[in-house]
Amino acid sequence: xxxxxxxxxxxxxxxxxxxxxxxxxxxxxxxxxxxxxxxxxxxxxxxxxxxxxxxxxxxxxxxxxxxxxxxxxxxxxx
Amino acid sequence: xxxxxxxxxxxxxxxxxxxxxxxxxxxxxxxxxxxxxxxxxxxxxxxxxxxxxxxxxxxxxxxxxxxxxxxxxxxxxxxxxxxxxxxxxxxxxxxxxxxxxxxxxxxxxxxxxxxxxxxxxxxxxxxxxxxxxxxxxxxxxxxxxxxxxxxxxxxxxxxxxxxxxxxxxxxxxxxxxxxxxxxxxxxxxxxxxxxxxxxxxxxxxxxxxxxxxxxxxxxxxxxxxxxxxxxxxxxxxxxxxxxxxxxxxxxxxxxxxxxxxxxxxxxxxxxxxxxxxxxxxxxxxxxxxxxxxxxxxxxxxxxxxxxxxxxxxxxxxxxxxxxxxxxxxxxxxxxxxxxxxxxxxxxxxxxxxxxxxxxxxxxxxxxxxxxxxxxxxxxxxxxxxxxxxxxxxxxxxxxxxxxxxxxxxxxxxxxxxxxxxxxxxxxxxxxxxxxxxxxxxxxxxxxxxxxxxxxxxxxxxxxxx
Amino acid sequence: xxxxxxxxxxxxxxxxxxxxxxxxxxxxxxxxxxxxxxxxxxxxxxxxxxxxxxxxxxxxxxxxxxxxxxxxxxxxxxxxxxxxxxxxxxxxxxxxxxxxxxxxxxxxxxxxxxxxxxxxxxxxxxxxxxxxxxxxxxxxxxxxxxxxxxxxxxxxxxxxxxxxxxxxxxxxxxxxxxxxxxxxxxxxxxxxxxxxxxxxxxxxxxxxxxxxxxxxxxxxxxxxxxxxxxxxxxxxxxxxxxxxxxx
Lengths: 78, 465, 247
Ligand SMILES: Nc1nc2c(ncn2[C@@H]2O[C@H](COP(=O)(O)OP(=O)(O)OP(=O)(O)O)[C@@H](O)[C@H]2O)c(=O)[nH]1
Ligand SMILES: [Mg+2]
Prior knowledge:
The complex is a heterotrimer of chains A (78), B (465) and C (247).
Chain A: E1 4-5, E2 14-20, H1 24-32, E3 40-46, E4 53-57, E5 60-64, H2 66-69, E6 72-76
Antiparallel strand pairs in A: 1-6, 2-3, 2-6, 3-4, 4-5
Chain B: H1 3-17, H2 22-44, E1 45-47, H3 53-63, H4 69-112, H5 117-155, H6 158-171, H7 178-187, H8 189-195, H9 202-211, H10 221-231, H11 238-269, E2 280-283, H12 291-326, E3 328-329, E4 332-333, H13 334-348, H14 353-361, H15 369-378, H16 389-400, H17 404-415, H18 421-431, H19 434-461
Antiparallel strand pairs in B: 3-4
Helix pairs in contact in B: 4-5, 4-11, 5-10, 5-12, 5-15, 6-7, 7-8, 8-18, 9-11, 10-11, 10-16, 10-17, 12-15, 13-14, 14-15, 17-19, 18-19
Chain C: H1 2-8, E1 14-20, H2 26-34, E2 51-57, E3 60-66, H3 78-89, E4 94-100, H4 104-117, E5 121-126, H5 128-133, E6 136-138, H6 140-147, E7 151-153, H7 162-174, H8 188-205, H9 211-219, H10 226-246
Parallel strand pairs in C: 1-3, 1-4, 4-5, 5-7
Antiparallel strand pairs in C: 2-3
Helix pairs in contact in C: 8-9
Bound molecules: guanosine-5'-triphosphate and magnesium ion.
């Protein structure tokens, strides 16, 4: 399947992180949390109002806003 | 050689050694570390069965679901408040009875000793009485509320609240972790302000710091409970009464959250302008709290906290208030004099001079606001035992003309006014700025004044009271 | 309050730092060992300042420092900076890295970073009871071998494994147990650059800091270490001058 931003991944799907298209502090933060190229990421659930969304990243559930997940490019499985 | 040039040389050296963009290098480093971690973990951790993992997810699915997320949040709030309010009735009455019994014994002893009246007045009617007021009114609700709250905290519910509410905070230009700092504010606004350190972006941290006071802290919460209990439910059965009071307090807290969001929105487009920063929040797995231990510990904790506050702030305040009530300025006591001076303005806010003065004199600690008010009302009158809500109702309504509007405005003003002295000093320390400390007092006060004035104006012009 | 903290740490006290990801039970461990009552809670970020306390083990006094939890040592927020600065420049006699047994991969990320700074490290795999509940089996022997560090499994809340942890801490502090951290190997070009910079940094800053770690930070452009480096430089310059004067 084609690469897409993490923001557009449906609930329950999973994929591999390809790259992060933002620089500076936000990039650092995301990488610190384990979103580095090659990491597996799974969309766990949306919050009641749709944003933020909880992801499973390297064994922990992390909530991220769409501003950030828009900048994470993922290759979904299947 | 000075250090500046040594440092510059070092940086140059680094540049020459590896002329690659630093971001690239960092990416590389972070990736290598994570890959190593992944490899080691894969070699050392094995999952023996797949069972049981889904259970936690299912709990989360409900707690943060579109349908149930908010109702559960409000429901838990109601349950916690209800247990607090219903449960505090008896111990409060018991404590009050015992403490007033001690007061009369003390009085007897002073008479026995032939002590001058002013000594008795200062020590017993001032220091002791305010202290026992604070203890009997504050201690029971706090000793019930906090263990319950700690259980929720230990189970891991608070991050879910932040997760659910983040959208609102984002809209307000603030940070979802502000929900966590607000939760800490229940215990003490100063603690809430310190907790704001978890918000990385300075702009959003400032917003969280300036608005933390809209969460009713330990010192104000019992006042809200007390007033709700006196004014809501009327002569209904105790059960119904406490249920109604619960709803009132819960609504007030939700209202406080709404005010927080509105003021945050206002701040982020004026004083704390800027783009929202990133939001990342780990939702830790649920863990079963050690229920017995948590309850006992946080009960002792709160008891100690309230007692310390009673001795450190309430006792001296009681002395000072007694003095103010007993020195006269132009024929009336200093207390009445000040109250009379404040009265015209206070009336516009639905309050009276004594209420506003109690808030002002309560600057050192919110716990003493209500005792000061009672002292103000009681000055000069004979000893009065105020261990029952009925007596309180009689004092406020029959003797001092309180209406439900007075109660409402007092509660609103309690929710929206300057933070206590400790919190203000904490804000100064955390923000390294007198200016922001000043603003932290001005902003909520302005909000409270406007709010009370509007409510009063409408209620009065519609003839509702 | 301030005075108490200062007097708590004397010149020759043994200082042990507690580092780790947020919410791994550092404060719980701290409370169990010191008998103090730091606040704990199941959410990341409960501790936002460093708390100090002391305990006595086999007649020797140890000062324990509870640090805020961090995901990395990049110092991007206040609490991260507190933790990082203490581990890097506070020069504790030993650092206990507290890891969450149920989430080891993520936690090892930080452990590996701490291992780059200092050798005197004890890895504490906490929440082992939670891991058991989730049917996760952690092979601590193998982990210890792979990392080149002593590894102790604990359940801080129940006191499980604390005796062992204390024993290992005392051994590391006394030098009876010398951890040999097997640190991360980076890409060849980075390693080459580090190798080149290391002697220069050592020359400039002496033994006070780990030159490999400083080299890596400089390479990735982490400027937050600047004030510390400058301070060390200043001290060295001052000492050199003093020597000159004396000579
Ligand atoms: N089941 C279990 N729970 C534990 C254990 N140790 C700590 N906890 C719980 O884990 C939660 C987090 O503990 P803390 O000690 O506050 O964690 P921390 O590492 O100090 O967290 P931060 O200050 O946020 O970095 C608390 O609710 C503890 O009760 C343990 O060994 N077993
Ligand atoms: Mg902690």
